[in-house]
Design a protein that fits this description.
- The complex is a heterodimer.
- Chain A is mainly α.
- Chain A has one domain: Rna Polymerase Sigma Factor, Chain: A, CATH 1.10.1740.10.
- The longest helix of chain A has 23 residues.
- In chain A, 61% of the residues are buried.
- Chain B is mainly alpha-helical.
- Chain B has 4 domains: 47 residues, no CATH class; 277 residues, no CATH class; 83 residues, Immunoglobulin-like (Sandwich), CATH 2.60.40; 102 residues.
- Helices cover 54% and strands 5% of the residues of chain B.
- Chain B has a 4-stranded antiparallel β-sheet with strand order 4-3-6-7. A 3-stranded antiparallel β-sheet of chain B has the order 1-2-5, with no helix packed on it.
- In chain B, a hairpin with a 6-residue loop joins strand 6 and strand 7.
- Chain B is globular and about 75 Å long.
- The chains are: A mainly alpha, B mainly alpha.
- At the A-B interface, helix 2, helix 3, helix 4, helix 5 and helix 7 of A face helix 1, helix 3, helix 4, helix 5 and helix 6 of B.
């Protein structure tokens, strides 16, 4: 598996140069990293929280912490798994602190639009598809670790190695965790879900 | 599950294409002969695909246009960024117990106690965007003005004077699993020390009593004394130590520590009295501006030092210098410089990020293809999957090209994934054109005004799919092309392909569109059956008709046709 950047395309320097510059205190370089990965980070945060406000907070906080920790980043390693790790750890903390899993349903999109001043079409995002809604509900019931591994693999297309890095577990664990997550999700979708799988 | 069948883990790994060649061959040979396992694999693949559809969200370009600004403002104003390092590092330590210690400090919670948090709330943003920019701007000005004074942390520090107590208490260093005692001491005591330092530099008469200076602690926690492993983030214990050391380091030394977390060596910032003085001015200015613009400050008032004279003048100078000189001003916000904005995609100027991925039309020859964005730049490391009877998985190389071992077959779906890009799904058809009309991630359409060039409603098509996403409409286009082909060829095979394509459309849509797609799929199957009436096909048709009748409203005009087919089928 390669370790190519998971980023929004731009013409800028490669990640390593930007990290290096950031480590020297170059805020412009860090700003470029932020813009490069903001979508991926936000997407992961949203997948794990399915709440706009939480995702917003997590995504921003991820970069705040990344800035704080950039000095410890080992040059040459892929940037995104490192960011993903910060996201998932925050999300796990959030879950635990709330003593519950993230909300099943997404926030009312109309409100979101108002909140953000985004004149978006709610219908575009709202679960019009029953199956999608069901899938979201089932996904939300998965153990946070299973959600995370699915999010990283399916939604974010990270390699097993990168997921291992992002979750801080061995690659073998990624493999087994992924298969359990998929099987659990499939079972829940089939309606055989038990409530205790966590 | 019988022992003869493949385990979930094998299927899962096969789906992800992570098996070595021998295992993969073994599993594939099993799959070839075992319908049950093949179906399970397909269901995993389908689940993956559905997840992508169901659980994906992009707040849109407007959200991201100033995302970096908000991060910058947050870094500038939020001491949590530093205080949270220890927590983050603890969390980073892994999914094990260390993270539990993290739990009591919910990520969102500190907002409640942060007097500046409102700046970063969605509602506050529109309202207070200018204030946030001012924070950054002043900070940046300081940096320039103070000649590498290293601003963001300066501001973090200055705000930290207000925040020290809360952030300290909310960062209780409970995760003491393996953390040495000195570590926790540093963590709990360094903050006051830094506060004192900063206060001293900011204003001579800053609240004295509550902040004992503790140089000894600061020394104890000096970076050299703790392991600064380059892979610190991977080492649970060490990373915490490092985080604290960093935090302490930054908090306990005024100027050099102001340069971000990093190895500040390349930015030697001698804490000359002059610089410090300027910082003091700027900090109080920030405090003032925020103080005056925020509705209610819940923090300790003494944290805002008395205003030195000539504040306004300094601010002007700072702002001016920011406009002209600050690199961050160009990139993170503040005053966008055209030259920088030109390069910085997704920048505040409303430029869309090049977040579209597309297949190069016609380049997918046989088994190879090219992934690139809409600007034509090849995309490396995109994952390309074939979803179908023979799932395959590969990645594009540095030149954006990829090849499968075998050509995808008609009826398969090609899925391209790349973080930051909208996933592409492309049904493989026999038609030559593989152009995909991609939906940029988070497009706002016409209304957003950000992506006028890509607006999904730009091309009015008076059909039920007009309002669908570009991805869906691409699928519809493919299906229609196949329909035309099938009408010419009049073979069961081409109609079968058509069935698959319309099923794909039906899966992605709802309401009228899905009814239409389902009906077209059914029609194609009916046509295929008419051309080559095999019993298996008849069974499928029967089943498809039943599910169509079950799933569509009674008022649907097409139902009459379908019911007629059902009658015909029964009478045979």
């Amino acid at each position: 598996m390669d370790s190519a950047p998971r980023r929004t395309l731009d013409d800028g320097p490669d990640d390593t140069s930007l990290v290096q510059a950031s480590q020297r205190g170059d805020q412009a370089a860090f700003g470029q990293l932020v813009r490069r990965y903001q979508r991926a980070v936000h997407r992961l945060a949203w997948t794990l929280t399915r709440s706009q406000s939480d995702a917003d907070d997590l995504a921003q906080e991820t970069f705040v912490r990344a800035w704080g920790a950039i000095g410890r980043f080992e040059l040459g390693l892929p940037v995104y798994p490192w960011l993903a790790r910060i996201v998932t750890n925050q999300a796990f903390s959030l879950f635990r602190s709330r003593k519950r899993r993230p909300e099943t349903s997404i926030e009312p999109l109309v409100e979101q639009g108002q909140q953000w001043g985004i004149d978006d079409d709610p219908a575009e995002h709202t679960a019009t598809n029953e199956r999608d809604a069901r899938l979201r509900a089932c996904f939300a019931q998965l153990a946070p670790e299973h959600q995370a591994v699915l999010a990283l693999r399916v939604m974010q297309d990270l390699s097993y190695d990168e997921i291992a890095h992002a979750l801080g577990v061995p690659a073998g664990t990624v493999m087994s965790r992924l298969s359990r997550a998929r099987a659990d999700l499939k079972r829940r979708m089939a309606g055989e879900a038990s409530e205790d799988a966590s | 599950m019988s022992h003869d069948h493949l385990a979930d883990e094998q299927l899962s790994a096969r789906l992800d294409g992570v098996l070595d060649a021998a295992d993969e061959a073994r599993i594939d040979s099993h799959l070839a002969g075992c319908e049950e396992c093949a179906a399970r694999l397909e269901s995993f693949a389908a689940l993956d695909g559905s997840l992508l559809d169901a659980i994906d969200h992009d707040p849109g370009d407007a959200y991201f246009a100033d995302f970096a600004d908000r991060v910058a403002a947050r870094i500038a104003a939020d001491p949590k960024g530093e205080a949270a390092l220890a927590r983050e590092a603890a969390g980073v330590a892994g999914s094990g117990g260390a993270a539990d210690a993290d739990a009591p400090v919910p990520v969102a919670k500190p907002r409640a106690t942060n007097p500046f948090a409102w700046l970063f709330t969605p509602r506050g943003l529109a309202f207070a965007g200018s204030a946030a920019v001012l924070v950054a701007a002043v900070g940046l000005g300081v940096q320039w003005y103070g000649q590498r004074g290293a601003v963001v942390s300066t501001l973090a520090g200055s705000v930290a004077t207000e925040q020290a107590a809360p952030s300290q208490s909310s960062d209780p260093a409970p995760q003491a699993m393996s953390a040495p005692v000195t570590d926790s001491m540093a963590s709990t005591q360094a903050a006051p020390s830094a506060v004192a330092t900063l206060d001293a530099s900011a204003a001579k008469d800053a609240a004295p009593g509550t902040r004992p200076d503790r140089p000894a602690v600061a020394q104890q926690a000096a970076p050299g004394t703790l392991p600064l492993s380059p892979r610190a983030e991977l080492a649970p214990g060490a990373s915490r130590n490092v985080a604290r050391a960093r935090e302490t380091e930054r908090r306990s030394t005024p100027a050099p520590a102001l340069a971000p977390p990093p190895v500040a060596t390349s930015a030697p910032a001698p804490a000359s009295a002059n610089v410090t003085q300027q910082e003091g001015v700027a900090m109080s200015e920030v405090g003032q501006s925020i103080e005056s613009s925020k509705p209610k400050a819940t923090s300790a008032p003494e944290a805002v030092p008395p205003q030195p004279p000539a504040r306004a003048k300094v601010t002007d100078a700072l702002t001016q210098s920011l406009r002209e000189n600050s690199p961050l001003g160009k990139s993170l916000g503040g005053a966008p410089a055209p030259a920088a904005a030109k390069r910085d995609l997704g920048f505040r100027g409303g430029r869309a990020e090049a977040s579209r991925m597309s297949l190069d039309a016609g380049v997918l020859t046989d088994r190879c293809g090219l992934v690139r964005d809409t600007r034509g730049t090849p995309l490396a490391a995109a994952q390309v999957r074939v979803s179908g009877a023979q799932p395959a998985n590969t990645r594009s190389g540095a030149d954006g090209r990829y090849c499968f071992d075998a050509a995808p077959r008609v009826g398969d779906t090609l899925i391209e994934l790349h973080v930051g890009f909208e996933p592409v799904r492309l049904p493989i058809t026999s038609i030559a054109t593989l152009a995909v009309n991609m939906e940029p991630i988070g497009t706002l359409g016409d209304k957003g005004g950000m992506l006028t060039g890509f607006a999904s409603k730009a091309a009015p098509t008076p059909d039920v799919y007009a309002s669908q996403s570009d991805v869906v409409r691409a699928a519809v286009t493919a299906a229609r092309a196949q329909a035309a082909l099938a009408a010419r060829e009049r073979t069961a095979e081409s109609y079968e392909k058509l069935v698959v394509l319309w099923d794909d459309v039906a899966e992605r849509t709802s309401g009228a569109a899905t009814y239409d797609a389902r009906f077209r799929s059914l029609s194609a199957l009916h046509e295929a059956h008419a051309i080559a009436p095999e019993s298996a096909r008849a069974d499928r048709l029967r089943h498809a008709i039943e599910s169509f009748v079950a799933a569509t409203p009674r008022t649907l005009p097409e139902r009459a046709t379908v019911l007629r087919w059902q009658q015909e089928l029964r009478s045979r």
